[in-house]
TrEMBL record:
InterPro entries: NAD(P)-bd_dom_sf, Sc_DH/Rdtase_CS, SDR_fam. This is (-)-isopiperitenol/(-)-carveol dehydrogenase. Pfam families: adh_short_C2 (PF13561). The lineage of its organism: Eukaryota, Viridiplantae, Streptophyta, Embryophyta, Tracheophyta. It comes from the Eukaryota. Coiled coil: none annotated. Belongs to the short-chain dehydrogenases/reductases (SDR) family. PANTHER family: SHORT-CHAIN DEHYDROGENASE REDUCTASE (PTHR42820), SHORT-CHAIN DEHYDROGENASE REDUCTASE 3B-LIKE (PTHR42820:SF21). Gene3D superfamilies: NAD(P)-binding Rossmann-like Domain.
Length: 263
């Protein structure tokens, strides 16, 4: 029975032997995905973040033989390149890049009161940083002829106009454009590029902006699907689908996980 169970476990491991980088992997969606990837047999999960204490804690809890933490500020392209290079040098290749690092608008900006200092900081992380991650992951995959998967975190804000947080919505629209372009350009190399778009969910990032009770109430009202609250695990499951062979013929796709978002 033990052998049978072990065989079933191996069959369920959708990322067996894969080498993965997750930016923004120290908390929230990134942390949940790191744990899920490790459970699905990833040979090494590299967490790239600027939250050193949290990142090291997550890596240690998963196990140093399967997960490691590297400090990386995605606003700095050279740091992104160094993470990709060190991963490839250490583990032979890069199979999956989950570009997840992102921030929220620090204020509810409309176009009439747009603060460009805040705008520039947000775009440096959400858009420029995302492009740097896709660029250097793709270069590594092309060079080593890896038919890899690149997944980006966007948002339902990438598909709708918003009353507030104009800069955030713009940054997520830009990421969707990045995914569409990269998927067209990298298809010849067998590299798939997709994105996942959550609606509102409670994470350490969103909790910093609003009380948890208020968040749950607001987010519940924005979904037509009742009886279930969106969690980081739901998003991680969607990312796993896009990262694994289950989505072998899926590229340039925006996988919306929003419970039929009401607009």
């Amino acid at each position: 029975m033990a052998n049978s169970s072990h065989s079933m476990d191996n069959g369920a491991q959708k990322l067996a032997g894969k080498v993965v980088i997750i930016t923004g992997g120290a908390s929230g969606i990134g942390e949940e995905t790191a744990r899920l990837f490790a459970n699905h047999g990833a040979r090494m999960v590299v967490i790239a973040d600027i939250q050193d204490e949290l990142g090291n804690q997550v890596a240690a809890s998963i196990g140093s033989d399967r997960c490691t933490y590297v400090r990386c500020d995605v606003r700095e392209e050279e740091q992104v390149k160094e993470v990709v290079d060190s991963t490839v040098n250490g583990y032979g290749q890069l199979d999956v890049m989950f570009c997840n690092a992102g921030i929220l608008s620090p204020s509810d900006q409309t176009i009439l009161d747009l603060d460009f200092s805040q705008f520039d900081r947000l775009f440096a992380v959400n858009t420029r940083g995302m492009a740097a991650c896709v660029k250097h992951a793709a270069r590594s995959m092309v060079e080593r002829r890896v038919r890899g998967s690149i997944v980006c975190t966007t948002s339902v804000a990438a598909s709708h106009g918003t009353m507030l947080r104009t800069d955030y919505a713009m940054s997520k629209h830009a990421v969707k454009g990045l995914v569409r372009c990269a998927s067209v350009q990298l298809g010849a190399h067998g590299i798939r590029v997709n994105c996942v778009s959550p609606s509102g969910l409670v994470t350490p990032l969103t909790r910093a902006a609003m009380k948890i009770e208020e968040l749950q109430k607001v987010y519940a009202q924005s979904s037509r699907l009742k009886g279930v609250f969106l969690t980081a695990k739901h998003i991680a499951d969607a990312v796993l689908f896009l990262a694994s062979g289950d989505s072998e013929f899926v590229t340039g796709h925006d996988l919306v996980v929003d419970g039929s978002f009401a607009v």
